[in-house]
Amino acid sequence: MKFRCRKDEFNNGINIAMKAIMGKTTMPALECFLIEAKDDKVYITSNDMQLGIRTLIPAEVEEGGIVLMNARNLSGVISKMLDDRIEFESDDNSTIMIFGGNRRHEEQGLPDDDFPRLPEIEFSQSVSISQFELKEMIRQTIFSISSKENNKILTGELFEVSGDELRIASLDLIRVSIRKTKLGSEYEKVKVVIPGKTLNEISKVMSNDADDMVDIYFSKNHVKFEFGDTVMISRLIEGNFFNIDQMLKNNYETKVTVNKNVFFNCIDSSTLYIRETDKNPVIFTMTDDNMKVEIKSSNSSMNEDVPITKEGKDLKIGLNPKYIMDVLKVIDDEDVNLYFFNANSPCFIKNEGESYIYLILPINI
């Protein structure tokens, strides 16, 4: 195999494929890139058995071939090359030679037979959405997946397609995050759970350009994302996701509208009084046009009045300040609406069109 390419384009392909490289493992092939030159194209493939990535790098292919090389070694070698043009060669014994300017690197590759190829899967349906919009929906929900592996289904996010709507949801049994958007076409119903790790890695490499699209393909056990010159295939999480519709109430006793930035800064200040080991809630007391925000610790306290618009009953409730801040960070609206039924029921933060809904369970005060 022999090809030439630009260093920056090689580096970009390496950085994308690195998202599916395992750390230390008993299978050396999983620490490697499969580098394949064919049909005047060069592909870099990685696979950690849960997430597989194949990306194309522009290159001038002189001779086709295939070789397996340690991913971190390749990344380090290419980044240290002094020239902006790279020449890559391998022989029939999998000996790899990389040239950049006056610098030459030689390394023994591995037989490509050991590498687990990306699965050939028949996908039943696909949907298309802006890469930027999907990135935003992931960012606005991923923080409330569970980090506890004992309930695997909660470590992923629900992707639900119905008609022309995509809904993404996550929950950790203390809070729920939901984002909805309209798609450009009507689609058949799909309901799958995608691992949070997959979504984190995909969002890191997708474009910020609203005009760049990603096609999402679904099968019974896998999901595939295609965008630009990259394909990412992930296993789905098996099992039934929680029925989040049962958790969403439309009736409320109290509705509060508050400036988001004022509210956030107030809660942010209150966290100065809380150590990470403390379980102290922030206590919100809502009356006609005022919300008193209070926090007490073992040796200090703080309270602040925040102007609000209130409909319905007065209310006093305790909430985890971090959970509220997580939500406010991902809302772009100038004002936010909070809905309450009573002090023992969840707080809902949502907009009028319900393109976003966040649920936070209260803390007993």
Provide a descriptive summary of the structure in words.
There is one protein chain. By secondary structure, the protein is an alpha+beta fold. Helices cover 16% and strands 45% of the residues. The chain has 6 helices and 24 strands. The chain has helices at 7-17, 71-80, 131-139, 196-205, 260-270, 321-329; strands at residues 2-6, 32-38, 41-47, 51-57, 60-63, 65-70, 85-90, 95-100, 103-108, 125-130, 156-171, 175-195, 213-218, 222-227, 230-235, 254-259, 282-286, 290-296, 301-307, 309-312, 315-319, 335-340, 347-350, 356-360. An 8-stranded antiparallel beta sheet has the order 6-2-3-4-15-14-13-10. The chain has a 7-stranded antiparallel beta sheet with strand order 11-12-24-23-22-16-20. Helix 1 runs antiparallel to helix 2 and helix 5 (260-270) runs antiparallel to helix 6. The longest helix has 11 residues, at 7-17. It is elongated and about 80 Å long. The mean pLDDT is 93.
List the helices and strands and how they pair.
Blueprint: E1 2-6, H1 7-17, E2 32-38, E3 41-47, E4 51-57, E5 60-63, E6 65-70, H2 71-80, E7 85-90, E8 95-100, E9 103-108, E10 125-130, H3 131-139, E11 156-171, E12 175-195, H4 196-205, E13 213-218, E14 222-227, E15 230-235, E16 254-259, H5 260-270, E17 282-286, E18 290-296, E19 301-307, E20 309-312, E21 315-319, H6 321-329, E22 335-340, E23 347-350, E24 356-360
Antiparallel strand pairs: 1-5, 1-7, 2-3, 2-6, 3-4, 4-15, 7-8, 8-9, 10-13, 11-12, 12-24, 13-14, 14-15, 16-20, 16-22, 17-18, 17-21, 18-19, 22-23, 23-24
